[in-house]
Amino acid sequence: MSPRYAGPVIDPHHHLWDLSLDRHPWLRRKNGADEEMVFGSIEPIRRNYDAKDYLADARGQNIVATVHVEAGWSQAHLAEETAWLDTLDKAGGVARRYIARVPLDSPDAASRIEAEAANARVVGLRDIVSWHLEPAKSFAKTKGLMQDDRWRLGLRHAERLGLVFDLMLFPWQFDEAVRLVADFPNMMFVVNHCGSPADRSLEGMTAWRDGLRELSRADNVRIKISDLVAYDPQWTLESLRPVIVHCLECFGTRRAMFASDFPVAGLHASFDEVYDVFRTVAAALSNEEQGDLFFTTANLTYRLGLEPDGTSGD
């Protein structure tokens, strides 16, 4: 067993928001009710969360850079999110790169994608395809987006521009995803949150394990080991360990990265608790492999341009 990782850390998945802008419909209270989502009540994160809040949560973890992932801005104002991020203080490396959102099946998807790609900080896109039978737990507006011709046309445009695609889906959609990544061999896909193992039954976890293994066979797919606590709110180290280990068995360390998904993961764990689990499980690996998970894979995938010691290569 190697010493626990103590080098520079890149967090390739977190969110920031300012609720005074009224741009996040999913964070609004509906009729005064605190509705449940797939990860439970979101009441504790109905508050502003800016770079200072993030750095306070991440204090002591040696975070040198982060990737901001689109945070569910309203459809009518999507272009504003990237512009808003550009105004933020980048001290501490927060939001060094962005994953923007473009509805790929929209009539103006091509122009929207080109506008996002023109910003050097935008390295990828996310248009969530996670569909659930229960509407409150569904992130996508419709079933089968990955098979939709117009949606795929938008994705093809993003592929031509060299953008990464962050793929957030449920395990019952893995078969569709296998076909998708095969049809877009020149695009890098990054599975979010370990493929969202939301069904914790024996049957559900077996389907997740088998589907993830099949999806990992494609060389153009990587994975973020993130927010496992959302789907295991009564988590322990020993309940999270096999999920992390399976991801590593499928993808290896050169195609996997640890990420916080804060503040959403904060619904069920502190930042220190999340990274303590990562460091504890990773201690079974070599120093180089640990470096892959905490730094190198994210640095390469999202073109952060950092030197191995975490300093800027710009």
From TrEMBL:
Stretches assigned to the Amidohydrolase-related domain: 10-303
* Organism, as annotated: Rhizobium hainanense
- Does the keyword Transport feature in the UniProt annotation? no
**Which InterPro entries does the entry link to?**
Amidohydro-rel, Metal_Hydrolase, Metallo-dep_Lactonases
Protein name as it appears in the record: Predicted metal-dependent hydrolase, TIM-barrel fold
- Report whether Hydrolase shows up as a keyword of the record: yes
Query: What family does the database annotate?
Result: Belongs to the metallo-dependent hydrolases superfamily.
Mention one GO molecular function.
hydrolase activity
Xref: Pfam families: Amidohydro_2
The UniProt keyword set, sorted, is: Hydrolase
